[in-house]
Amino acid sequence: MESSYILELKTLLGETRVLSEPDELSNYRFDRWVVKHLRNWRGDTVPAPGCVIRPDSTAQVQAAVRFCSERGVKLIPFGLGSGVCGGIEPARDQVLIDMSAMNTVVEIDATNLLAIFEAGVRGIDAEHAVKERGLTIGHWPQSIEISSVGGWVSTRASGQFSSAYGNIEDMIYSLEAVLPNGEIVTLGKGPRAATGPDLRHIFMGAEGTMGIITKVTLSLRKQPEQRACSAYYVATMEDGFEVQRRIIQAGWEPPVMRLYDSSEVARLFADHTYHDQCLLLMVHEGPTERVQAEIDVIARTISELALPASASITEQWLERRNHVPEWADLLQQGLIADTIEVSAKWSEIGSVYTQVVKALESVPYCVNASAHSSHTYRSGINLYFTFACMPPSSDEMEALYFDSWDKAMNATAAAGGSIAHHHGSGRLRRSYLHHDLGNSGLELLRSVKMAIDPKGIMNAGNLLE
User: Fold this and answer.
1) Cα separation of 107 and 91, whole Å?
2) Strands 380-389 and 172-178, how do they pair?
3) Distance between CA atoms of 134 and 132, rounded to whole angstroms?
4) Cβ(130)–Cβ(137) under 8 Å?
5) Are the beta carbons of 382 and 343 closer than 8 angstroms?
6) Per-residue pLDDT tens for 350-407?
7) Considering the chain, what is the average pLDDT of its residues?
8) Is the Cα dihedral 38, 97, 170, 155 positive or negative?
C-alpha cells in the first residue's frame, strides 16, 4: 500500500487509530486457520496487511470505508481472529479493520429482553453483562472467550446449547452495518416483520464480504431456574441418531445433546469407556418441573436403545468443554489436524457418518477419523468430524490437510449432506459451495455481492473467487 494512504488515514481517523509498524501488523497476518499456523510454524512468509485501522465508533468505520471505496482500496473486516476457515488473508495493498475497540455494551433492556452490543464485544463479556441482570444470550460457542458478537453474525455461528436456544440467526433482533459505499443501514425493527425479504440475512454468514457489522441487538432469555445432566451409552452411532430423533421430535429440547462415536469416547472420556459403545451427553435446563419431567420422559422413551451412564460424565464435559490444544502443540507432535462440521437429514446422517469417516481414513498417514454430533433439529442433525494425519515430514502436511478436506466435502455431498454447519466457509470451502447452492445459487450470490459491492473491496476472495 502506498504510504500516502496511510498518512491520509491517520489524518482522517487519528494517529492512534491506524497501525502501520511491522511489529504491529504481524499480529494480523492470519486468524486461527491451521494452514496459516502451519506455514508460519515452518517459517514460510505469511503476508501482513498494509495497515490496520482500529475504529472506536460507527462514524469512524463509515469514514474509513468511504475513504477506501473512493480509492478502490480493499478492506478486510477483522473481529477477534477466531475464524478457522481462511476468512482472513491480508495483502500489503489492503486495509484491515480491527473491530475489537468497538467493545461497548450499549444497552440491556430487561423488559423487552434485548441487548445492544457493539460488534467487537467479546462473547463471554456479552454473556457476563446480561447475566448480571438475570438473563442469558444462550449462545455458547466453544470460542466464546476469543470470538466477538459481530463475528458470530458474520459466520452464522452455533453454540453448544443450540438444540433449545437456537443458533445465532435465531437470536438476532436487529443489526447495524456499514455498506461498501459507506452508507449505514439498520435492519430489524419489530419482533417480526413482513417488509419484503429479511435483509438482515445478507450479513449473516457473509464473512465480511457485504459490509461491516457495527452493532448487533440480540434477543435474550431469562437465566434457567435449574440445570441437570444425564448421559447414556448406545451401541452404535445409528442408534444414537435414532435416540436423538425420538427426543427432539417428541417435543423435548435438551439444550445440549452430544453423541460421541466410540473412537472419540476412548480419546476424550478414557475413564468412561464401556464395551466400545458410543456416548450421548445431555444437559437439561429451564423451570424445575420441566427439567425433571424431561429427564424422566426421555429415560422411558429411549430405554430400549440406550443404557444409563453416570451424569458426572456430562458434568465433566461442562467443566472442560472449551479446553482445546493450540495448533502449535499439535504441529510439534508431527500432527496436522482439523475439525469439519456438516449436517444432514435424519434419513441421511448415518450414511454421511460412515462415508466421511471412510474417506478420511483413506488419506495417507491418517491416524484419526472420528465424529460427534452437537446440534440437533426436528428434521436432522449435524456431525463434527475430527481428523489427524502424521506424515514422516512436515513438508507433506499441507497437501494431506487439503486432501482430507476434499475427501470429506465430496463424501458429505455424495451422501446427501450439507457441507457447512457453523464455522462459516471462508476460502477453505469456497470451491465446494456448489454442492449446497447449485450453480444457479452461486450466480445469485455473485449477483448480490456485485450489487452491494460493485468495486469488490470487501474481503476480496472470501466466499467467492
Assistant:
1) 37
2) unpaired
3) 6
4) yes
5) yes
6) 999 999 999 999 999 999 999 999 999 999 999 999 999 999 999 999 999 999 999 9
7) 97
8) negative
CA distance readout (Å), 362 to 318, 365, 367, 407: 33, 9, 10, 9
Phi, psi of 447 (to 5 degrees): -65, -40
Residue with cell string 452455533: 158
- For residues 165 and 255, the answer to whether their CB atoms sit within 8 Å is yes
Q: How many CB atoms lie within 10 A of CB 462?
A: 24
41 near 29, Cβ under 8 Å? no
Which 3 state secondary structure label does DSSP give 207?
coil
Helix or strand (DSSP H, E) at 436: helix 434-452
What pLDDT is recorded for position 349? 98
CB 68 within 8 A of CB 178: no
Q: Is residue 419 helix, strand or coil?
A: coil
Instruction: List the beta bridge partners of residue 231.
Output: 281, 309
In whole angstroms, what is the distance from residue 185 CA to residue 176 CA? 6
Q: Which amino acid is at 327?
A: W
Calpha distance 397→403 (Å, rounded)? 10
Q: Does pTM surpass 0.85?
A: yes
Considering the four listed CATH numbers 3.30.465.10, 2.60.120.20, 3.30.230.10, 3.30.365.10, the one that applies to the domain covering 103-222 is: 3.30.465.10
The residues pairing with 371 across neighbouring beta strands, listed in sequence order, are 385
Alpha carbon 393 to its chain centroid, in Å, reads 31
Q: Please check the confidence at residue 1 and state whether its pLDDT lies above 70.
A: no
CATH architecture of 327-436: 2-Layer Sandwich (3.30)
Cα 177 → chain centroid: 20
Where does 226-320 sit in CATH, by number? 3.30.70.3450
- Give CA–CA dist 161/459, Å, rounded: 30
Give 32's DSSP letter: S
- pLDDT tens across 184-209, in order? 999 999 999 999 999 999 999 999 99
Write out the CATH class of domain 3-100: alpha beta
Spatial separation of the C-alpha atoms in residues 127 and 139, rounded to whole Å: 8
Q: Would you place residue 465 in the very low, low, confident or very high pLDDT band (cuts 50, 70, 90)?
A: confident
Query: Which among 19, 20, 21, 18 has a CA at the least distance from the CA of 9?
Result: 18
418: which DSSP letter?
Answer: B
Furthest C-alpha separation in the chain: 72
Phi-psi bin for 384: left (phi > 0), alpha (psi -120 to 50), beta?
beta
Q: Are strands 278-286 and 256-260 parallel, antiparallel or unpaired?
A: antiparallel
End-to-end Cα, the chain, rounded Å: 22
